[in-house]
Amino acid sequence: MEHSETLTREGTVLVACRIEDLPPGESVRIDAADGTQAVAVFNADGELYAIDDTCTHQDASLADGWLEGCTVECPLHAACFDLRTGMPNGPPAKRPVRTHRVTVEDGFVRVHVAVPVQAF
Amino acid sequence: MRSVAVVGASLAGLTAARALRAQGYDGGITLIGDERQAPYDRPPLSKDFLLSRTSAEDLALTTEDDQSLGIDWRLATAATALDTAGRRITLSDGGEVRADGVVIATGARARTLPGAGGMSGVHTLRTLDDALALRESLCAGGPLVIVGAGFIGSEVASAALAAGVGVTVVEALPVPLAGPLGAEMGAACAGLHADHGIPVLCGSPVRELLGGARVEGVRLEDGTVLPAAAVLVGMGSVPNTEWLAGSGLDLRGGVRTDSRGATGLPHVVAVGDCAASYRPDAARHVRTEHWTDALRQPETAVRTLLAGPDTAPGTASAGGGSVRGLLPYFWSEQYGVRIQFAGARRDGDSVRIDSGDPEDRCFLAVYERDGRPTAVLGMDQPKQFTWWRRQLAAQWAAVAT
Question: Which fold would CATH assign to domain B3-109+238-323?
Fold first, then answer.
């Protein structure tokens, strides 16, 4: 498992959906308009979390995965990721997914997409 | 127990080594594998790897964390005999390994076509080296003839189409995939080939391969001759158990184990594609070749190994691995469509389309017997499929205990 941390800043803000469209236990995928990686937003028992949508193991959408507590299980190979940290819990995934800050403003769920800070 | 030899260095073997440490074993671990590469993931070999969309580095199963396992690696070395009385494994390089406990994870190998030996351009697909050779043939162009319309054959047909190689699939059975999926759903999956203009010739076995040093064609039993620059044989696999002859192990259909991975010999367990493990639901021994079984079985088998031979069946099973992992599950990807199957279908089960339409290649089908679901098949329905997989796993757990 890779523990190296990358400095990030918040870049694009994506509007995911209205808060009432994301009840507990549900998830939604947002495809970024600029072609960057899609983001998955989860409502885990009232707490909102956003992570990169694509499993780091093989191409699968984590928004289609099974949500249990603060963990989402990839629908293809059952790799589990912690929604709070993005870390996989073991094989088959080896790399974490990025996590993104989520806010609710005026009834809309907004994702503040983390982007790597370019090294000088 | 002070030393364990894990024989077989693929997903099941590596997972067994990890499970030994995770369960507190602190003795020596020797991991023996006949391939030269460190453990790698095989499923992409018939998919993205053939199209160079995945690199060999991407396939690596080991991570930095595995360095702390303290494994004595013996790669590019085959085990050739198991002397259980002496607790000794003989190696192809003339050496030997002594071990108090043995995990057998030697997998399976691709079945070959009789008479194909030595003819170049004739491929099977199991290993990284197999995939590299097949990729080279695809790069050289077609036509490619695929013998066997199972999952490997179908995935390679899909990759060949993407690579711009002309391909024909031949299948001895009247309906492809009837074994794992039943005739109705097998036909639905095989429809993907027709959707993309790939001919599938069913019900006519291969009579012979044509050519000399290099394959030039395939003649079917009905007389049809198909020109071929390359042939892929996808006719299933046979377990790698020959090296265990004379060991005293029961090798009928694979290394026979109970539901916890125990063989008839104390201190020897078996996992993965080489193991025919007892399945309470089927009341018989079943050898599966599912990736998820190779990932989940070692946890239980290692627990059995560490508990020792005097543990009565059942008493060690309380923590017997992930229940969900015990439910048979496999997936395939063809022509950009994701196929997933979970459960244990039997001939005679009825099929109910739960959502979508097979004609649209986007549906979820539930197999039922006596009004109860037995298995589920999804085509591009990952979320719904996972829900059903969970339902079946809960039902499965109730039967398995």
Answer: FAD/NAD(P)-binding domain (3.50.50)
- Determine, for residues A75 and B383 on separate chains, whether the beta-carbon distance falls below 8 Å: yes
Q: Using the beta-carbon criterion (under 8 Å), do A91 and B61 form an inter-chain contact? A: yes
> What whole-number distance in Å separates Cα of residue B63 and Cα of residue A51?
22
Q: What ipTM was assigned to the predicted interfaces of this complex? A: 0.73
Q: Which two tokens stand for residue B295?
A: 């990932």
Q: Does domain B336-400 have CATH number 3.20.20.140?
A: no
2.40.10.240, 2.102.10.10, 2.60.40.10, 1.10.10.10: which CATH number matches A8-116? 2.102.10.10
pLDDT, tens only, B162-197: 999 999 999 999 999 998 999 999 999 999 999 999
> How many angstroms away from the CA of A12 is the closest CA of chain B?
28
pLDDT at A35 over 70: no
The DSSP bridge partners found for residue B210 are: B217
Least Cα distance to B294 among B278, B275, B308 occurs for B275
pLDDT at A9: 64
For position B378, what pLDDT does the model report? Answer: 97
Q: Compute the nearest-CA separation of B64 from chain A (Å).
A: 6
Contacts of residue A10, defined as CB under 8 A and 6 or more positions apart, other chains included, come to A101, A112, A113, A114, A115
**A92 in contact with B, Cβ within 8 Å:** yes
pTM comes to 0.89
